[in-house]
Hints:
Blueprint: H1 7-20, E1 27-31, E2 46-51, H2 54-63, E3 69-73, E4 87-92, H3 101-114, E5 115-126, H4 131-141, E6 142-152, H5 153-162, H6 177-193, E7 200-210, E8 226-228, E9 231-233
Parallel strand pairs: 1-2, 1-4, 2-3, 3-9, 4-5
Antiparallel strand pairs: 5-7, 6-7, 8-9
Helix pairs in contact: 1-6, 3-4
The protein binds S-adenosylmethionine (SAM).
Amino acid sequence: MYFMVRPSKTFLFNYLEKKLKRVNAAIGLDAASANFKNRAMFKTQKYYGLDINLEHLKNGLQKYNDQNTFGILADLAKLEQLPQNSVDLIVSTNTLYALPPDKRLAAIDNLCRLAAPQAQFLCDLPLDKEFERIKKMLHTNFKQVKIIYYKNIFSQIYEKIFERNGFLGSHPVAGTRPFRFLAWLISLTEYLTCKLSFLNKHVLFVAKTKKDHPDKNQFNLSNIRKINPKIFDLT
Length: 235
Ligand SMILES: C[S@@+](CC[C@H](N)C(=O)[O-])C[C@H]1O[C@@H](n2cnc3c(N)ncnc32)[C@H](O)[C@@H]1O
């Protein structure tokens, strides 16, 4: 269970944790993994954390030094070397929104290409002017696309009270246990409003099952250069 500083993120991560508990397929890709913050949510047989920052990957591998956890040093917009139709679970959190529109679309296009026939692809995005294009892209690639709207008006008001220049991470009050509990309580209201686009600022896309019935490929990285035994290098 997550008790985060922001109610909206508390909702997002508790929702993902519940959802990913049931996905125990072979290959999981955490796209823009930082130091493998989402590692514990993945129940796939293998976890690949992909990030553009080598130090983040090294830190992640220090935390999770097991035989099923790997790093991939890569830019999300340049994943051509990874095999298409090969990844069973793709998750990207708190990152795509920060990429410029062309890079964001290239990243999503890449992740769609990597997804295996029965894959699930989950990513969070702001409800901004790129939303319709991304929705169309996901509908083009996947049979089922579920949209969960979140960051509702209650979360927005709560977060505005504490934000400083848009940041809330290290707020001395919001970061305390009672306020994290309050944020968790507010996050429960997200379940009531998650179908109402007009009340919310963000979306979580949950896309499932490729449309074009491709054959599944092995997630074979044997041709890719390694920085060390656990980190592949696409740069
Ligand atoms: C805010 S962190 C998100 C980490 C984690 N997914 C989470 O939800 O907390 C953003 C991460 O994206 C990585 N990143 C930014 N641009 C990227 C790109 N174009 N390709 C791959 N990783 C990128 C950064 O290095 C950083 O680790």
